[in-house]
Structure formats: C-alpha cells, structure tokens
TrEMBL record:
Its EC number is 3.4.21.26. It catalyses: Hydrolysis of Pro-|-Xaa >> Ala-|-Xaa in oligopeptides. This is prolyl oligopeptidase. It comes from Trinickia dinghuensis. Keywords: Hydrolase, Protease, Serine protease, Signal. SUPFAM superfamilies: alpha/beta-Hydrolases, Peptidase/esterase 'gauge' domain. The keyword Hydrolase applies. Residues 1-24 form the signal peptide.
C-alpha cells in the first residue's frame, strides 16, 4: 500500500463548491417503477424494481447498458482520470508477482506473473533456486480480445507429477477442470465442467483424485438451487474424461443411508500418510463451522461408503488435518479464540478429544501439519505470530519473523519437516518465508522480490475507535509519513465485517496513487469479522449485523475527531458483503460521507437467498422464511431503507455482468432506487464490467481501470484540483 505526490491541503476547500456546480445537466436513464408488495410476518415491504431480478429481460439489459454508457461519459469527462489510470496500472504491473505456493517434496508449485503481465500463470520449480517452468498460461486461452480466461485453482499430485487445475471465462468462476503432466508438459484428456471452487484431493497412487462437482441445471431448476449441493466424485486419470460416469462418493442425495445437510458443496480430504479420509459438508465454502465425516480410504465404494459423522456445526470445527491415525481439528467450541484438539481417527469423539493447543490470548487463525509438528498462525493484535508445537502439544516455540505483518498460506509438506508461508504488511510487500526446525527464525526465500514501490515514506498506525456501546473498534490508518491533521485529506474508509473474515495487513501498490493525491486509507475492523475470534464474528451476524454498520460509522467519526479529514472529504468503500456496510453508510447517516463506493455489493438482503449463491449464505445472514430471520435481514437491507427526498451522497455502484457470488441485480436495483430518491443533486452512477464477475480472476488492467474510475470520481466529488470537469 503505497503512493506519493503533493498533498491536497486547504486548496480543497475553495474547490469544493465547484465540484457540484460542474455536474452535467444530463440525466441518467430512468427505470420504470413496477411495485411488488410482499408481506413478511405482518410487515408489508414494497419492491419497486423486482423485475430487474430477471437479468435476461431485454428491457433490463438495455437499461443496464444505458446506465453504464451514462457512467462512462461522466467519468471520461473528469480531467485527471486517464492520467490516474495510467499511474495505477503502472504501480500494479511493475512487479514480478508470485503467490499461492504448494510444496510437493522439493518441487514448488505457485502462481506467477512477470512485470507488465495481466494474468497469473501456473508455474513450478525444483527447489527454491530451481528454474521456473510455466505450466498453464490463461492469457493464451482466449481467441477474443473482449473476453479473458483466468486460473481459478490448482492441486498437484503428491509426487508432483500431475496438476489438476481449473480455468474459467470472463470472471465467471465457472471452472472447468483440466490435468497437465508436469513431466512432459502435455495436457491430459480431462475436461470436467461444473467444478467451481473445486477441492481436489489426490489419492496416494497419484493417478486418481476426489473432486467436487455441481449438479446439472435443468430448465426447471430454481435459481437458488443452481449452484448448490455439489457432490464429491472419484476420478481416475484416463477414464471418463468429461467426468460423466465418475462415481459419486459423498454429498447430499448420494446415499439414502447418509444424512448430509444442505450446503454449497461436499468434498473429501486426504493425507498421503493417513489411511483415512474426511468428508466435509460445507454450507458456504468457507472456514466457518461445518459438518464432518470420516471413513477408511479402503472402504470408499461409491454410494455405499460407510461415512461416520464426527462433527456438526454446533461442535464449532472450522478446519481438520490428518496425520497418520489421528485427526487434528481447529475448533471454537468453548474457545472463542479457538483451540486445536486431536482424536484417533478410528474413534474420533471430538467431545472427548485431547486438547493439543489450548485457547490463549491470541486468536489461532490457521494451522498446518509438517512431518515434524504443528505450525500455527496466530493473531497477536494487529500482527501475527508463527508458532510450532509437537503433535502432542509440547515444546511450543515462537518462531521469529523478519517484520510485523499477516501470515498467509501456511505451506508444509506432510512428508517433510518445516513450513513455508507468505508474510505481508500494510507498508511491506509480501515475502515468501521458510522455516526449518532448529533455525533461528523464518527467513526470506527470495521467491517474491520486494515491490519496486516499497519505500520508507509510508506509515501504518493501529488505533481504536469507540463504538456506540463502548466497544473498542480496531482501526488501521495508512498514509504518507508525517501527514498533517488539518482536516483536509480525502480519506477512504474501507470495511467488510462478515463471515469471520479479518481485514489483515495487505500491501497494495495501487494505493500509492491515492496517497499521491494527499489521500489516506483507513480500514475499520468491525464486528462480524474475525479479528478477535468467534465471539467478534457472531456479534456482527444476523440480528446483530447492525453492530457492523455502526462500527464502520464509528471509524469514520474517529478520523474526523482526530483531525485527519472532514465529512466533505470522506469516501466509504466496501465490496461484496461489505455492500451491507455501504448500505448503512447511505441510510443511517446520509450526511456523514461525501462519496459511497459500493462494489459488487449485497444490498437487497431480503431477496438474497433467491439467487444462486443465496442459500449458502443463510447461516451467516439469516433467512426471510422465519420471523427472526426477516427482522435481521430487513434491518440490514439498504434497498428497503432508501427514502424519497433524502440528500444522499455521490454514489458509484459497480458490478460484473458474470458475477456468480452477488447477482448484478443488487447494484441495478440500488442504482434505480437511489437515483429516484436522492435530492442532493450529487451523481449516482452504475459501472458495469461485461468481462468480469465478482472481481476474482479480473486482470491487472481491469482492476486498475476500476480503481481509476472510483478514485477519480471521488476526487472530483471532494473538490480535488485537476479532477473537476468543465462546467457545461
């Protein structure tokens, strides 16, 4: 996260009035109002734009195109926009990138992109200092310049000979599974569709694997069931190249003898040194408590596999690892900051499991097993600690790290001692570290070179805002060093606060372009995230989601109270489930922010569970099918709390036409509603990327273009010199 340039000081004040006056008299296309009233447990809710949920409707598509055209004209009229876009892309594309490392003996697999390249490739090398070999380059898969492919996931066999991987088109995440022979570089015949977010687990023969696949969608399949209840299959290389005919071994409906709960996916986990397999019924493909089963590998026989349930969501298990005849589990049961327990796989009674790593002051973020012991990434305030302990929980040691930051992607090898990991900070670019038992600490492998944008002119400050109920809300402030607290700095307040996901330090080269305009980045760590463990997460769920929204506002008020900025320079930003927070920024206190940037956001939560990715999110958000769930969803539904004649801030809603996670209609409906309701005269724009989805798999150029649009729009609205369109 770095940037650099002259600070915008008092000159912003004189330019502020001009920003509104220069807004074009051109008006956006108006959407027809066709009210639909639904009665929820005695509360009538009117939806003026329900028809927009039919994204195949030519009228809806035409309005969507017209809105995006209108947005493009408005953004192209901002004088500094193109220069900002060039700067952002230069910052984002100037470094060699490597990430997502997996160890298979001495062989390392990872994703990489050279400086100037748009998309990550799959590569490997033999040893840290070995020659890099590119296996899959998605940039070479497209024959149409208007569409692109992206690498979604990969999974190497235990001997490193084969790699299964998924690619999808246009940011859709609709993965197709392929297999490549690392030794020859040849593609095998496998091409298996419906493998989004796939979990591939190779068997020890290195010629077969378990994988998940979504069911075929028929003409009468409800949208809410179209990407749900994926089933685990067994595939043997060279057989059933398209996956049809592969035996289903676990999942909803596979066997009448086994009760598997509804959820997004069922998949199987194995380890090369264990004779057992664990199956997971995952409600939302995340690391929240799920349902787990176990069986001996030798007893897996299609639908007749005798899976034994060992944990339900009530047991709080969020992750499991296999080591020989024992199961290791990370659980929040009676341990809000989590603990690691162990039990024999032959009789894994987790209620009476051995506590290997008890709950402590730190939050256990993740754990992984090497041949020599257990490695743990623990949250210690704003940064992380790396710990190692024996399989019996003895001889715990803290492993020194080269700088304070967040640990990502613990990468051990079950057959080898030690671990690799990625460490990153707010002002320190990622490094790939390695630790070997007996060493003085984790050391830099050099596999990820420092960013060329990294310098000592930035600083990150960790502090606390005070919530409405007295709760201390962590706030991270990233800016140029020595920034003056004169209340004039354009300040982006970013928030998410859902699913127990934490907003950990993450170096973003593009941010330097914002800092160069005198800007500040602020990240609010709200309830609903995982910064303080399971209790912090649950304090921002369902009926308590209001806490998340108020915590975000508390972070914004802190920045004003501390003299960094004022309301006329405040920009709220969130994406995906963070759209709920953006809705709160719009509706709870419309005058607090000058700009709201809502990226692929969830906005109409009452209707969320009707879309393809809706049902998996019910455990997090709640369901409108019961009264308590309705009240929670209604409270957090910004779409249902937009009121006519309200002076709303300037808003930009962004979406990807191929978004599989949050349907584009959320942003369409919000755009139509806010445009019709606002009395401020500030612009309300809808930005659509027709070659993107949720942002996952987007190219560097696409991401840089979105940053430039949003930041130029924000700088225009806060009155920044050089970003004011000429008055018409």
């Amino acid at each position: 996260m770095k940037r650099n340039k002259p600070l915008i000081a008092v000159t912003l004040l004189s330019c502020f009035a001009a920003s509104s006056a220069s807004w074009s008299a051109e008006h956006p296309p108006v959407a027809p109002v066709r009210p639909v009233t639904t009665d929820y447990f005695g509360t009538p809710v009117v939806d003026d734009y329900r028809y927009m949920e039919n994204l195949k409707d030519p009228e809806v598509q035409a309005w969507m195109r017209q809105q995006d055209d209108y947005t493009r004209r408005a953004l192209d009229a901002i004088p500094g926009r193109d220069a900002l876009a060039r700067r952002v892309e230069a910052l984002m594309s100037g470094d060699l990138r490597r990430t997502d490392f997996t160890r298979r003996g001495h062989r390392l697999f990872y994703q990489t992109a050279a400086a100037g390249e748009n998309l990550l490739k799959l590569a490997y090398r033999d040893g840290v200092n070995g020659e890099e070999h590119v296996l899959v380059d998605p940039a070479k898969l497209s024959t149409d310049s208007t569409r692109h492919f992206a690498l979604d996931w990969y999974a190497p066999s235990w001997d490193g000979r084969y790699v299964a991987y998924g690619v999808s088109e246009g940011g859709s995440e609709q993965s197709v599974l392929h297999v490549i022979d690392v030794q020859t570089g040849h593609q095998l015949s496998e091409s298996i569709d419906r493998t989004s977010s796939c979990v591939v687990s190779w068997r020890s023969d290195n010629r077969s694997f378990f994988y998940l696949r979504y069911p075929k969608v028929g003409p009468n399949t409800p949208l809410a069931q179209s990407e749900y209840n994926a089933v685990a299959h067994l595939h043997v290389l060279g057989q059933n190249a398209d996956g049809d005919g592969d035996a289903a071994v676990f999942g909803k409906g596979v066997s009448p003898k086994l009760d598997v709960p509804d959820g997004q996916a069922g998949y199987v986990l194995v380890s090369p040194d264990s004779p057992y397999a664990v199956a997971v019924a995952n409600h939302n493909m995340d690391n929240n408590p799920n349902t787990f089963y176990v069986v001996r590998l030798a007893d897996i026989h299609g639908a007749d596999t005798p899976w034994k349930k060992i944990a339900s969501p009530e047991d709080g298990v969020v992750d499991v690892q296999l080591h020989g005849d024992r199961l290791y589990a990370l659980t929040g049961k009676d341990a809000s900051r989590f603990k690691v327990v162990s039990a024999p796989l032959a009789h894994p009674n987790l209620a009476h499991a051995d506590v290997v790593v008890p709950e402590g002051q730190n939050v256990i973020d993740s754990f992984a097993l090497g041949s020599d012991g257990i490695y743990l990434a623990e949250r210690a305030g704003a940064t992380f600690e790396l710990h190692r302990t024996g399989f019996d929980g003895k001889d715990d040691q803290t492993i020194p790290l080269p700088f304070a930051g967040a640990i990502r992607d613990l990468a051990p090898d079950a057959k080898l001692p030690g671990v690799m990991l990625e460490l990153r900070g707010w002002v320190k670019s990622p490094r790939e570290l390695a630790y070997a038992p007996g060493a003085n600490g984790a050391t830099d492998t050099g596999l990820i070179p420092p960013s060329k944008t990294e310098s000592d002119d930035l600083e990150a400050r960790e502090t606390f805002a005070t919530g409405y109920d007295g709760t201390r809300i962590p706030v991270s402030i990233i800016s140029k060093k020595g920034i003056t607290r004169d209340g004039t700095h354009p300040t982006i307040i970013y928030g998410y606060g859902s699913y127990g996901l934490s907003m950990d330090p993450s170096y973003q080269p593009a941010w330097r372009a914002w800092f160069e305009q005198g800007g500040i980045m602020t990240v609010v760590h709200m309830r609903g995230g995982g910064e303080y463990g399971d209790a912090w997460h649950r304090a921002g769920q369902k009926l308590w989601k209001i806490n998340t929204m108020f915590d975000f506002l508390a972070g914004a008020h802190y920045m004003i109270d501390q003299g960094y900025t004022q309301s006329q320079y405040l920009v709220a930003n969130g994406r995906s489930a963070g759209g709920i927070v953006m809705g709160g920024a719009l509706t709870i206190d419309p005058g607090l922010f000058r700009v709201v940037l809502d990226d692929v956001g969830v906005s109409d939560t009452l209707r969320f569970e009707t879309e393809p990715n809706g049902p998996p999110n019910v455990p997090e958000m709640g369901s409108a099918s019961n009264e308590a769930g309705f009240h929670g969803l209604y409270t957090m539904s910004a779409y249902d709390h937009i009121h006519n004649g309200t002076p709303y801030p300037a808003v930009m809603f962004t979406t990807g036409a191929n978004d599989p996670r949050v349907s584009p209609w959320h942003m369409l409906k919000m755009t139509a509603r806010v445009q019709a309701a606002t009395s401020s005269g500030h612009p309300v724009l809808l930005r659509v990327d027709y070659d993107a989805g949720h942002g996952i798999g987007s190219s560097v150029a696409q991401t840089a273009d979105r940053y430039a649009d949003e930041w130029a729009f924000s700088l225009w609205q806060v009155g920044a010199p050089g970003f004011q369109p000429k008055a018409k």
